[in-house]
Design goal:
- Helices cover 41% and strands 14% of the residues.
- With 138 residues, it is α+β, with helices and mostly antiparallel strands.
- The protein has 2 domains: 10-55, no CATH class; 71-137, no CATH class.
- The protein has a 3-stranded antiparallel β-sheet with strand order 1-2-3, with helices on one face.
């Protein structure tokens, strides 16, 4: 039976050495490990997890003095930097933005735009499936 991987790493018991190890993957793709202690120090896996708490990466939080950008801010930056030059493509993208995306998501902070919420919104639109796919891909 294979052990479940955690996004924050995992704690494994090495039977040969009788030690608990904390394992994680770095962003570059390399696997790393750190010795936590022996079975005598931590008799249960839960105790080993508690000991590994300082080793786990802390979730990134936005500080109070930082503001979360709104969807409108991202759209304006997209219009300036990434919007296609071709006339017909630009017009169709502006149409999707003006008629569908900005009215619903314009004032929302980026942290509120979650995949499940967006999918439910897309299915609620009274558009053809192809049009909804264009908006999703946009």
């Amino acid at each position: 039976m294979r052990a479940a991987r955690h996004k924050t790493g995992s704690v494994r018991f090495d039977k040969r050495r009788g030690t608990w190890n904390y394992l994680w993957y770095e962003k570059g793709g390399g696997r790393r490990s750190k010795l936590i202690g022996t079975k005598r120090d931590f008799p249960t896996k839960a105790a080993a997890w508690e000991a590994a708490a300082p080793l786990r990466p802390q979730p990134t939080t936005i500080k109070n003095d930082q503001t979360v950008p709104r969807v409108n801010d991202v759209i304006e930056r997209y219009r300036q930097e990434q919007m296609p030059i071709r006339f017909s493509t630009r017009i169709s993208y502006e149409c999707w933005l003006k008629n569908h995306i900005i009215p619903r998501w314009g004032e929302s902070p980026l942290t509120d735009v979650q995949p499940r919420v967006v999918e439910l919104w897309l299915t609620s639109l009274k558009l053809s499936p192809k049009s909804r796919a264009h908006i999703r891909g946009f």
